[in-house]
Amino acid sequence: EDKVVQSPLSLVVHEGDTVTLNCSYEVTNFRSLLWYKQEKKAPTFLFMLTSSGIEKKSGRLSSILDKKELFSILNITATQTGDSAVYLCAVGRDDKIIFGKGTRLHILP
Amino acid sequence: ETGVTQSPTHLIKTRGQQVTLRCSSQSGHNTVSWYQQALGQGPQFIFQYYREEENGRGNFPPRFSGLQFPNYSSELNVNALELDDSALYLCASSPTPPRMNTEAFFGQGTRLTVV
């Protein structure tokens, strides 16, 4: 059965810290790995990764994919209270997107 | 703002009733998918439509059904509502056919409560 597993499920850090969120997957017909940030309702798109070893960056956020070991990480440096959210990892196939349960990140001021 | 709009935002229904949720895709997006997100869980895929045809379905019973219209807007219908159907229902649209790598843009969701 296809699955996407995120760790940790919950994380509390202080403002300014760096965090690493993990995502492992076992999914047939892999097309892409996606990261979303969900603050209240609508998940907002962060990154889409399709190739191994190529880091994608957006400001303080970066992500990389390892298709051999079947995992991805999302790094957030110099965290801010506005980074508090649930971060969702998902794997895209032709016919669906399979989500993990998410990592709930809380940044203390 | 993603340009994907869902209605209504909140809804309370009684067990056994039927409900229709609506989604208006972002302009130019021809693929739409629906997800159910229970509290504390990740979104669970219900089904996907591409150019008015269903082209993928998750592990949901037949009482969950959908439609996509020529303007690419979409409906999710749930019959014989059960208490466990209480969740946030998310609609997502994509600008390309499912076989192409692209991200999905989500609407704000409909919070359904079944009592």
Description:
The complex is a heterodimer of chains A (109) and B (115). Chain A is an all-beta fold. In chain A, strands 2, 4, 5, 9, 10 and 11 form a six-stranded mixed β-sheet that branches. Chain A has a five-stranded antiparallel β-sheet with strand order 1-3-8-7-6, with no helix packed on it. Chain A starts with a strand and ends with a strand. Chain A has strands spanning 3-7, 10-14, 19-26, 32-38, 44-49, 56-58, 61-66, 71-76, 85-92, 97-99, 103-108. Chain A is built from no helices and eleven strands. In chain B, strands 2, 4, 5, 6, 9, 10 and 11 form a seven-stranded mixed β-sheet that branches. Chain B starts with a strand and ends with a strand. Chain B is mainly β. Helix content of chain B is 0%, strand content 50%. Classes of the chains: A mainly beta (109), B mainly beta (115). Chain A binds chain B through residues 4, 6, 31-32, 34, 36, 41-45, 48, 50, 88, 90, 92-102, and chain B through 2, 4, 33, 35, 40-45, 48, 55-56, 58, 88, 90, 92, 98-99, 101-109, 111.
Please give a handful of descriptors for the protein shown:
A: mainly beta; six-stranded mixed beta sheet; five-stranded antiparallel beta sheet; B: 115 residues; mainly beta; four-stranded antiparallel beta sheet
What is the count of helical runs of chain A? 0
Order of helices and strands of chain B: EEEEEEEEEEE
**How many angstroms does the end-to-end distance of chain B come to?**
31 Å
The parts of chain B where pLDDT drops under 50 for at least 5 residues are: none
Overall mean pLDDT of chain A: 94
Helical percent range of chain B? under 10%
Main interface: chain pair and counts: A-B, 26 and 29 residues
Overall mean pLDDT of chain B: 90
The dominant shape of chain B is: globular
Order of helices and strands of chain A: EEEEEEEEEEE
Query: For the CA atoms, what is the radius of gyration of chain A?
Result: 13 Å
Q: Describe the global form of chain A.
A: globular
- Total strands of chain B: 11
Strand portion of chain A: over 45%
β content of chain B, as a range?
over 45%
